[in-house]
Hints:
The chain has 145 residues and is an alpha+beta fold. The protein is built from five helices and three strands; from the N terminus they run αααββαβα.
Amino acid sequence: MKRVNFDPDLELKKARIMEEFNQSENRELPARAGAADQEMVADVPESDLKEQIIDALRTVYDPEIPVNIYDLGLIYDVRIDNGFVEIDMTLTAPGCPVAHTFPGIVERSVCLVPGVAAATVEIVWDPPWTPELISEAARLELGLI
């Protein structure tokens, strides 16, 4: 088993993520975050929008593993329909302590992407997450390869 070196900057980032998790329970997502109107939604090609959404997902980090949720393999599907985004994601374990707040954090991150009218996240458990879903780049970053 390889050890991951302690990184104070990473620990600070993880502390900020946990603080956001704790604060997010009392916030509500606006009914229409992201694009101001339907015209703005139509101006963004879906392929570009999907890339921007994936970039936004890469800004959200798992609170216990120093890897973003996309490269960690927690995102199973991203569907876009005229600016409305549906995401299927999983968690590393069913008993994850942030399971009730994580979808809202992901939704807010995606809603910040220009061209997104709204986003919903559904937690799915099939297939179950395994470490094999971690991207090669993240495995290298974690010292797993």
